Amino acid sequence: MLLLSPSLDSHDDEACLDLLTVTDPTEENVLSVTFTQSATDRIDLWDAHVDERPARAGIISVGEITRSASADTTSTQRPVGPLTIETVSDPDDLTDLGITLNTFLSEWGDDDNQTVACFHSLTPLLQYADLQRVFRFLHVLTGRLETSDAVAHYHMDPNAHDQQTISTLRPLFDAIVDLDEDSEWNIQ
Hints:
- The protein is of the alpha/beta class.
- Helices cover 41% and strands 23% of the residues.
- A hairpin with a 5-residue loop joins β7 and β8 (185-187).
- It is globular and about 40 Å long.
- Pfam families: DUF7504.
């Protein structure tokens, strides 16, 4: 699912957590890829809105923020069940990001938990890689997630991209969820 919402909108976080809790969180493996937040930010977001801990959690922190993510996470007092934090230091390295994602999916493939994934966000990814390269990366990734029976959503700020960029990526997703000016979600 492609989630079109302004980056700093609180409704974006609410929708994200709704999409990450498709079943009982204690029976989920939650994977979060973040370009703009630290691992601690992602954990704090979960803690603020979800009462239950996921069975397993993984956070892939991409780019410069990764240097502080590991330090921040070690100081957190709120364990999130088995939590693994990986870093991809170069946001332009889609191969490393893909390998890291695949490692989580492979490790979690043998349990009965529902895997749910959040990619936060395509907007900064498109700052590091051109549209065609991102399209190819997402084509492979969405196929891999589908093969793993994972439920995934991808954030994108529609105000940061032209309509052609959004239209190019649209065929990769089963659904598009768009926040309108009345803060209502429209599903296409």
